[in-house]
């Protein structure tokens, strides 16, 4: 799964890659982004508009759900196109969640031992995500996950779906709605790019800070 991540690369550097229009709101670095908060994302609302940087609530519950049920933070790539809760968003409302790395926890450790996972070349990450309008009119999203690959298998059996550069435009394209076409055009980064290391257990509590020391190797 993906339940916590870090974002500290300057936002203009991330938006330039997809030609996204910047938000007027200043988005500073965060080293322990948790669910149930507003997170930086990019979406393309229509064929005639440019991608835009927007803040979305990390938690997916469309307005038609009438405030009932959970707000999942992740959606499995294996079922997102067919699950009734997600399939409309997968077809019509796809977005990118911006990150530099994410955290996972080694099982059966006490206290829970977090690891930080990122690209070996330290390039930023573009998580595939879906979004929907919430009851309050704002947008909420869920990050897609896939079976763990590469060294991330050491830490957890799932990982976020991290898109390669060639897939970003297709993933955002609002006119691309056929699920098989989407799957054929969209690819993830090479598993060999991923590395990880243990970090402070201060990550376990987002209230304990957002400083860059959280990603330092133990």
TrEMBL record:
Listed EC numbers: 3.4.-.-
Keyword Coiled coil: no
Pfam families, A to Z: SRAP
Alphabetical keyword list: Covalent protein-DNA linkage, DNA damage, DNA-binding, Hydrolase, Lyase, Protease
Family: Belongs to the SOS response-associated peptidase family.
PANTHER family: ABASIC SITE PROCESSING PROTEIN HMCES, DC12-RELATED
The protein's name: Abasic site processing protein
Lineage: Bacteria, Pseudomonadati, Pseudomonadota, Gammaproteobacteria, Oceanospirillales
């Amino acid at each position: 799964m993906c339940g916590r991540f870090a974002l500290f690369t300057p936002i203009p550097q991330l938006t330039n890659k997809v030609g996204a229009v910047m938000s007027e709101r200043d988005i500073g670095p965060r080293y322990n982004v948790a669910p149930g908060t507003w997170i930086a994302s990019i979406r393309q609302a229509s064929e005639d508009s440019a991608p835009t940087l927007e803040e979305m609530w990390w938690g997916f519950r469309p307005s038609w759900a009438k405030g009932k049920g959970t707000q999942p933070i992740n959606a499995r790539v294996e079922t997102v196109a067919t699950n009734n809760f997600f399939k409309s968003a997968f077809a019509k409302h796809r977005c990118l969640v911006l990150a530099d790395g994410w955290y996972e926890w080694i099982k059966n450790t006490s206290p829970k031992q977090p690891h930080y996972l990122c690209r070996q070349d330290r390039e930023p990450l573009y998580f595939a995500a879906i979004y929907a309008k919430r009851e309050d009119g704002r947008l909420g999203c869920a990050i897609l996950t896939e079976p763990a690959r590469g060294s991330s298998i050491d830490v957890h059996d799932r990982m976020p779906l991290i898109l390669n550069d060639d897939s970003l435009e297709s993933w955002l394209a609002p006119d691309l709605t056929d699920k098989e076409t989407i799957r054929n055009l969209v690819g993830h980064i090479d598993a060999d790019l991923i590395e990880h290391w243990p970090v402070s257990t201060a990550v376990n509590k987002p209230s304990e800070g957002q400083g860059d020391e959280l990603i330092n190797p133990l």
